[in-house]
Amino acid sequence: MIMFERFVGLELAYYRALKKRASLPREDVKNLAAQEKGYAGECVYDRIFDEVGHDSVYVFRDIYLGIEGRAAQYDSLIVSDDGIVVNEIKNYSGNYRYEKGTWYIGKSPVSDDALSQLRRAIGKLVKLRYQVQGKFDISGKIVFPNIEFRLQSSDDDLWENVVLRSGLRSYLGQFKNMYAGRVGEDIAELIRSHIVPNTYFDKYADFSAVRKGLYCSECGGFELENRYLYMTCQDCSKTEKKETHVLRAISDYKALFLNDKLTKQRFMEFIDYKVSERTVFRIFNKYCNQITKGKWTYYEFRYRDFDEAYQNHELLNRYKDKV
C-alpha cells in the first residue's frame, strides 16, 4: 500500500512555472530537461509497480528522511516484515558501460556513480536502524526503467545491484510474496516519523522579471478573452473556467516564490488583475487556509500543486472546463 505518494518535486515545479513566465537561460533549460526525464522514469516505475500490485507491503515514494541532522532523499522505499528495500531510480538512456568503479556513456566517463549513491542511501538507513536499535534488514537496487537503456559490465557485484526494464515487472512482483504485519508497521512508523521537507531546494524567482497574468494550458498564450465564468484563449480557442486559471496561478506562485507569503494584493499583481478581487477571494477560501496575525492576512495553499487540487475538486464543481 502507498504510504507517501509521489508528486512533482519542488525543483521541477519551479522550472515548469518559470518556463511559462520567463525565458530560461541555457543552464536552466538543461536542468528542466533533466528533472523532467528523472520524473518520467519514476512515473514509469510507479505505473509498473501499481500494475503488479503492492497491497501486502508499505511503499514510500520520493521522501526525505532526517538522519543525523541531514536530509537524505529516497526515490522509493518498500517496507515489509523482512525490512526495508531501497530503490534508486535512474532514467538513463543510451549505451552505458561500468568498469572498475566508473560509469561511461560511450567513451565519456559519467560523474554520477549510481552504485555509490545506492550504498550511501542504504548506509543512512543503517545509521537510523542503529539509533533505534532495530533488527531489520536493509537492502537495495538501482532501477533503470528506460527501455532505451543498455548496460555492459563484467562486474558481478554491479549486476547483483541492478534491475533493468526487461526484468522490472518480475523484480517488483516478488514483493507480492512479502507481508507487512506488526514488524513492518513499526518500521513504516519509524520512517514516517523521520520524514522532513526538502531542505536542499533554494531557488527563487525574481518577481519583477516574471510575466504577469493568466495563460492558456493548451498553448501557453496569455491573450485570454473574459467570458463571465470562463476565459477563452484567443490563439487556440481553448476555454477554461476562471477558477481553473486562478488555481493554476496559485500553484505557479507557490512554485516560484516558495517562502513568500501569498497575499491577495501580491497575487492580484501576479495575475495582472485579470479577474476580480471578489473572484480571487472566493477561490482562496476554497483552496487555501487563511492565516491572520493582527492586521496581517495571508493564505497557504492546501495542496502540493495544481493537479492535486484540481482532482480533489473538479468532480464537485457545478461548472466544468470545456474540451
Instruction: Report the C-alpha radius of gyration, rounded.
Output: 23 Å
DSSP helix count? 10
Largest sheet, in brief, is: 7 strands, mixed
Beta-strand percent range:
25-35%
- Helical/strand content category: alpha/beta
Number of domains: 2
* Low-confidence blocks of residues: none
Average predicted local confidence, pLDDT: 94
Q: Percent range for helical residues?
A: 25-40%
N/C terminus separation: 34 Å
Instruction: Note the run of SSEs as H and E.
Output: EHHEEEEEEHEEHEHHEEEEHHHEEH
Q: How many strands in all?
A: 16
- What overall form do the CA principal axes indicate? globular
Would you write up a description of this structure?
The protein has ten helices and 16 strands. 38% of the residues lie in helices and 26% in strands. It starts with a strand and ends in a 10-residue tail after the last helix. It is α/β, with parallel strands linked by helices. The model has no long low-confidence stretch (mean pLDDT 94). It has two domains: 2-196, no CATH class; 224-316, Winged helix-like DNA-binding domain superfamily/Winged helix DNA-binding domain (Arc Repressor Mutant, subunit A, Orthogonal Bundle). β15 (288-293) and β16 (296-301) form a beta hairpin. It is globular, with a radius of gyration of 23 Å. α1 crosses α7, α2 (26-52) crosses α5 (165-173) and α7 (242-256) packs across α9.
